[in-house]
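User: Show me sequence and structure for the first protein, then do the same for the second.

Assistant: Starting with the first protein.
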Amino acid sequence: MSDISEKIRQAVSVSVKEAFDIEPEGNMVMVERPRDPKMGDYSTNIAMRLAKSLHRKPADIAADLLPVLEKNLPEASSISVAGAGFINFVISETALSAVINTILDQGDDYGKNNTGNGEKILVEYVSANPTGDLHCGHARGAAWGDAVTRVLKASGYDVLREYYVNDAGNQIEMLALSLIARYNEYFGQPFELPEDGYHAEDVKNIAIDIAKQDGDKWLTADPEERKAYFKEEGIKRELAKIEKDLELYRVSFDSWVHERFFYENDGLRIEQVLQTMKQKDLTYEKDDALWFRSTQFGDDKDRVLKKASGLLTYLTPDIANHVYKLERGYTKLIDLWGADHHSYVTRMKCALEALGYPRDCLEVDLIQMVRMVENGEEVKMSKRTGNAITLRELCEDVGVDAARYFFVSKEVGTHMDFDMNLAREKSNDNPVYYAQYAYTRMFNILHKEDTPAFERLSQYDLLTDAKEAALLKQISEFPKVVADAAKNRMPNRICAFCQSLARDFHSYYNSCRVSDPEKPELTNQRLGLVNACMITMKNALDLIGVSAPEKM
């Protein structure tokens, strides 16, 4: 990557090798921006980290490194030792501002990097049962999962976004029976909603649509034929609704894999997995059920694969599903599951390890609960329907941008309060408004009628104000922020970047006059800086699926 902090890190690594014949490993070389800008633009504690192995004082190590660093880092205007051995760097204005042309050249591609090196990753998220509307819990997972795939793609990973449709099993039986009951109700016939069925309005509406479409022919149809039809129609219509809501939410998938796929051809794929497990002596029979010896691989107890009734447990087709993912050539599987699946993570990892796959080929991020809060109190139900707040209702209420930004800004593994009042606010207290308003300001500066046309320069040596330096350092680190967000699957770091860039730009806007007729050369260079900031902010917002509005 070309950002200044990475150049410093590389120069430090080379200098340590040259000065002490030591090859720094892993994350040994750390480069950070000091809290106090007076200390310099960047700082490293490498001298402290070498002290133990070199058996020397950090200050002496730093002193020996100085002349070598000065030779290997021409971008620095000064390098000094501070305190117990910190090495501080002041970067020349020319070196700092070189990022402007880099950004202008790369445009929409600025921030992209190849740290993923083409690694094939399959990310499964949302995967809600097709038995009802997506709710706010799904909204959190959808926003986070989509943002994860965006930063992974931007970092050079080969990513497939997949939705696993649970369209087999008891929940689909209950969906069909619930639809039939509502269908009978529509025609004034006796009906009984299953105790474990689906009572929500959306199921009732689907039944009414079927009644209007097909008439009363299913009242006298063969019960099994009727149930099969309502299963198919229920799944199809619920999935269509889910896909439409996700489209509104700017979430799309490359692949939709159905659980029923694994039951096709007499459950061939499932049987192949069971046969492989049997051949490896991974299963045994007890109480007429088939068990997996999962305790051999770290589980707290063995798991049932096939019940005494002959029915498969949910685990069995899910093992086949994960094997199918790996058979398609993906070396890393990432699943986003609800926090209630905590124990399920271990058994799935055990199953894959037992079948001969690396245990770390599967990584699972657990999505913690979200509370919707309004006027300081938890809101559990929609005022309109009396049911859980749906994803679509949330988007219509606070907007897609606010919903996505709020969900992505908080680490998915932590509990979250979603402040609906704040999400609606058009003020700087609302983080998405704050970031978007910074972009709008940048856009308006560049597109005012009296703003002179920007002319690209080979260097921008007049950008010497401290606030300009802060902006240049901020935007130069964007590719590294993207790479780190991808490596750690932490898209919330992009939100943090947006807040920092917005803060620095608002501060700059309030203290420096960008367009000054009396200083045309400085004006032109500042327009270049604003242009680079605008491109960077737009790219950052896009990585979390948030729009960059030209007007607010």
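Switching to the second protein now.
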Amino acid sequence: MSDTLKHECGVALLRLLKPADYYRRKYGTDLYGFRKTALMLEKQHNRGQDGAGLACLHLKPEQGRPCYDLEKSVAPLPLADLLSNCSDRIQKDLSAFRGEVFLGHLRYATFGRGDLGACHPFVRESAFPNRLLLLAGNFNLTDTRDLFDELAATGHHLPSRADGAVILQVITHALEEELRRTGGARGLMPVLREAASKFDGAFTLCGMTGDGTAFVLRDANGIRPAFYRLCEESLAVASERPAIQAAFDCSTGDVCELPPGNALIVRPDGSVEIGPCLDPKPQRSCVFERIYFSRANDAEIHAERKHLGHALVPQILRALRGDLENAFVSYIPNSAQVCFHGLLEALLTIAADHRRTVRFGQVAVKDAKFRTFIADSQTRKELAMHVYDVTYGLVRPGTDTLIVLDDSIVRGTTMRTAILPILDRLAPKKIIVASSAPPILYPDCYGIDMATLRELVAFNALTDILAEDGQSDRLTAAGEEARRQLALPPEEQTNVLKTLYDGIPTHRLIRAITARLKPEGLRAELQIVYQTIDDLHRCCPRHTGDWYFTGDYPTPGGVRVVNQALVNYLENRNDRAY
């Protein structure tokens, strides 16, 4: 993806189900649990570069010693720093990180603080093991402010307004109430049901109490991913299936997806319960996981990304007017590579049928180590475009059409200021930018770092069209309607912004986006090709969470967020809309 996009965090939970001696005898180490959890985190390092944390719970701790070990890091390379710090403690303390339950987290700081206090796992301390709670998750709620106000009104004092602190407090309050009423006889399922029924948003929550109970809970729409592997030795949970496969050398079929709205609970005795916890809702799993977020070494994601590339072929051939001989096919590194393979395979098949060839290669090369600290803004801007370099001699100047595939186009800033200017140096006759995702029209409130409308190139293109047609008053009227709707309960609101897009033909919106993306002085003709919604659904049939493209939010809070985002835009505020 050309735009820098922060997104969903990653979690890893491991519960060892055999006595410690078992792992020492079989694997020759008393650090089996630590090493496996560290490996699951390492295989998900793409999901968090702003912070990392790891907790280890001891089921039978000595009196006078903590029942858990905890390390966190917000260093520039937080996971490496975290594991180094854990290793130092392991060398000095013969009991450190040698427990039975492990909880790890990788953080992408979409919003909020970047200090250690914002890193997971969060801890609610107590001298009573069954009241001590450690919590980590991949979540973003739309009703955090409401929950905070409700807790404050009932006498709670929260040290932070962050959704992690609020979720922790809601769960611990439900836990206290359950212990007061029943002494915990019903287990943790009713606690999770009571707490999570208040949450509007996306979440995979992982936690453990001091008595050794561990749990995982996925939101009812299944927006956030959660996978697990259960065998006689252990239970492992992660945000991505291949992380578990790599850590335990198991097949795709050995790893299960936790159903939406379900909780997985491991009791202190090691028995496991998996079952419905929240009222069922339509599954709307985030499709951006398939387009970009999760790594493509998952068998299903790999196939889906290739299908996404294949699906773009008819539009690309139309844009080429069938002239494959004078085309060169490439991609924006690196996450678009698998999608590019699907596109290329389809083009090669078509070319073979007509006894033609397809020329392809890597034209754009990303300089991952490029940095500039020059203070002069103009010089810095000129250097910034060289974050990407190009391979010379592949594109025939003045003759070839250069096709470059990208995962998606969000803000378009990097495309306009860096990628297109440097590709233009190769002097292609035409540049076709193909996006494996449809145009991103709406803000996201479930974790992706695109929460304000003014950041979206598609929305800015919409305002250009309205201004061109002398209909900017429609935008103002929509803002007034959004203000009126915000006074209603979220479940009664409708997506006001959708009414503005509905009146604009897709081809005209794409032309306006193209005009926005075209840098001043670009010599080549420019055309943007987007994936269609129908093709997206055909390629990723089980992941229908497409609200950023369609405006069809899975929760009432999502609709409230888009209305607030529209009001914020018209009031020239960059505030977070939730």
